[in-house]
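Predict both folds.
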Amino acid sequence: MSDSTVRQRKKSAGEGKPRKVKIPHSSQTDASQQNRMWARLVLIIGIAIVVYFTTFRTREKKFATQKETLELRSQNLDCSKSYSEEIGKFPGCSPNICGRFVTDTLVAVEEVDILLNLARSGFQFGRSSGGASILDLHSGALSKDTQFINIYKIPEAKQIFTTDHINTYKLVKEKVQQAVSNIFKINGDSLFLTHPTFFSRLTNESAKTIHDEYWHAHIDKDTYSSFHYTTLLYLTDFGKDFTGGRFVFIDNPGKHNKTNVYIEPKRGRVSGFTSGAENVHHVEQVASGVRYALTISFTCNKEHAMVDPQFAIEEDDEP
């Protein structure tokens, strides 16, 4: 075999083998940089997620559940500056420390039954079409569709106000007032019932007016300037008579690690709190059923005091 033939065969065999392509050094560097960039990006995203859920999350805390029976549970809070400055003007009525409390042993079962009967009887004469109805026995204000009427202008309503209703309403108010005095260590004689004090009836009907939107977070002292102490007596049970409708304190609103503190309404349960910015709160929307409660409000300013309701029906003057 000639030398030319051998060289030709080697050339042909070499052409059938794959050739290695040498990647320029600059291309290898670019690929390495891109890999490092993606790794850093993934790490940054992971850190951001961790920071978000540890710094900006909303925690939930149960202050009182429906299944518990509490003699007294309280939480001390620093009073807001504006609340301290104002209430300091009323000697004997300023608390050493602000806060909130819950008790299930203050109001007797029989008293709750009488007040629930009174509320249901009153709401027979009027209800809001938007799901949030009130009955104020001091002013006579009663929700009716999208407006308010005066229940004392309805002659038939006279039949609902029994002696048991009247006496129980006054007795429960006095019990709650004394509890506020004892828990916040203030002079009971410096504390006065104030407007509005009312029954509420909440359902899951869609809101028709601004009065029906009870679920917005607020401060009682901003909403009602006369308020210094707010209390609620729940007349029906969360999880049994209705769902939703929990009472929610919002601690650290607008700040990192906001905490929602829940009270589940319980038949006969009384909750109370100082009415300043230290107790921002709202009520969850009722999802089903009917939620009844009685809000009893107190002031330290005697000029804003009001007397017990007279339960009187005004008769039209005869010609």
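Second protein follows, with its predicted structure tokens after the sequence.
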Amino acid sequence: MDDYLNLFVEETSFYNRVVLGTFLPESWWGPLPHWFQGWLRNYIGGVLLYFISGFLWCFYIYRLKRNVYIPKDAIPSNRAMLLQIGVAMKAMPFYCALPSLSEYMIENGWTKCFSRISDVGWLSYLIYMAVYLVVVEFGIYWMHRELHDIKPLYKYLHATHHIYNKQNTLSPFAGLAFHPLDGILQAVPHVVALFLLPVHFTTHIALLFIEAIWTANIHDCIHAKVWPVMGAGYHTIHHTTYRHNYGHYTIWMDWMFGTLRDPVEDEVKKM
């Protein structure tokens, strides 16, 4: 068992060497405890991912495709985006504690994670991943919904994010502009799922960081009309009505629990 758990440690150590070794002298991070190396690597990776994805996407939709996807009067001001960046950067050290904690639990054998796809086979891997995504979707939907329905949670946590409540205040940088505890709570289903079913470790880590790209995408106000994806068109409605479209990747949970509101139907009604 210890030999198998070492596979997880070897993998996270490899990630540490790649990320930390690229940006910092080894004499700075080498003596640090393994768990702290993991947090520092997640922090550097999270910050880079946030800024690279945010700046590239903003440059594309607000500059290269100016007035194509979003009218000029709906483009958020630089000040609004800087405020969003400030909120996200204050929360980022706390966000990175969650994947660091999940790595610690995995390395110590507390979860049902497996290291190699060959351990279960490709068919089982795909089935487990599909179930994992359903569990995460269900968990995030209800966590998000309760952050609205439980008044103290909304007032003291989620309201920080909902100051961005119209098209000209939403931007890709709003995707991680949460109260730190709010952002962690909405990501907790990713970690809970590790105790419920076998999950491939590398896939789990990748999906956590894909969250940063996904949240940037759903705050750009561009409705891609790709069924059943819960894209920005749906999420913009969430920011304006507060009572619809709590889902994350797909519309299915909102459809099942009666909170779905379709942006295309909304446009037809307005006409």
